[in-house]
Amino acid sequence: MGQGRSTAQYRNMGSLLHDVNVSTKKATFSMGCFWAPDSLFGVQKGVIRTRVGYAGGVMENPTYRRISDHTESIDIDYDPNEITYNELLNLFWAYHDPTARTSKQYTSLIMYHDEEQKELAEKTLKEEEKKKSSYIVTKVIPAKEFYDAEDYHQKYRLQQHTSLLEAVGLNRGSKLKTSHLAARLNGYIVGFGGVAQFDSEINQIGIR
Ligand code: MHO
Fold it and tell me: Which stretches make up the Selenoprotein methionine sulfoxide reductase A helical domain (predicted)?
């Protein structure tokens, strides 16, 4: 894990923070049940916050029970100085099976927010097509309305650890969609982040 020379603003307070004010870009993906990518992306260096929801369709106000033509999706706020869209795409491709024939609820989508993301997404899709013999179902489409999922789906793995959730001042509320700390813990708790990563983040803020 490379350490930049400048200490990122969000690691300067002696702890990982709930609220982080850096300018971010968005990345939106669908890659199966949204609980797993919430953990996967939440723990990546440069990912500030995540939320899970429903996107890709046209029906207004979908819910888990009435998902209609939408797909379970993850919405990521990332600091482009710390992680690139290409790195996020690499994780997208590596952590699900884009050849799986699934229902619309669990299909594979890349929802781009600008032309640069579109081009990178399409480029990596072509590369995957060369690597795989089966048909890739992934669609690259423009990001439109993202409907947040119900609170009980946000940081789902962390919510199973009620005492930890409470110990860091969180509960099942809207803060689970905005807290940087919640995103991190939700990844660590299932083993996506390792000791080396945590130590490097802690070293940057100067506590051991
Ligand atoms: N209940 C299913 C899917 C949940 S996900 C939010 C499972 O445990 O895999 O669709």
Answer: 174-203
